[in-house]
Write a structure and sequence with these properties.
single chain; RidA family protein; signal; Endoribo_LPSP/chorism_mut-like; RutC-like_sf
Amino acid sequence: MGYPIIFIVMALLAIKTAVAQATPEQNLEEMGIILPKLPDPTSNSYVNLVRSGNYVFVSGKGPLTHDSKYVTGKVNRDISLDEAKEAARLCAIHHIAILKQELGNLAGIKKVIKVSGFINSDPDFNDFPAVMDAFSNVFIAVFGEKGKHTRTAIGANSLPFNWVLEVEIVVEVTDSKRRMKEN
């Protein structure tokens, strides 16, 4: 005997609601993502992030691996497009680790506002959006609709430490449970 359509619709809505209510930390766990140990900034001239009101500005970060090394090289010369996409994914995880460390709770992120990506590439490469899609897709998977953002994706002749890409972000946070000091 088939189920009445109303029960099927209600079940699908319950599943959608449960998924929508998962915390970013639960989404990370479900995706099998373990946040890396974070290195200190490479200079005393800047900090990882600054909070101004309800906005958090995260410094440009590179693609950090779990063994605390960075993915380096130029796209289309030293590494492939697929390797660059994986580096962008690692860079997104690096940013999320910084936010988690500083905010204490990723649920406090109200909206990812802006992502600016700089891709270290040879002059013939121009598929920068494909590289940055891998970064953006991690944020959308972890934060849902809150993870959708405006974005810039441009090529660079050179980046610090020969990183394959460097990304900076701006997020809006809630006012509750302020863990970090306001700068």
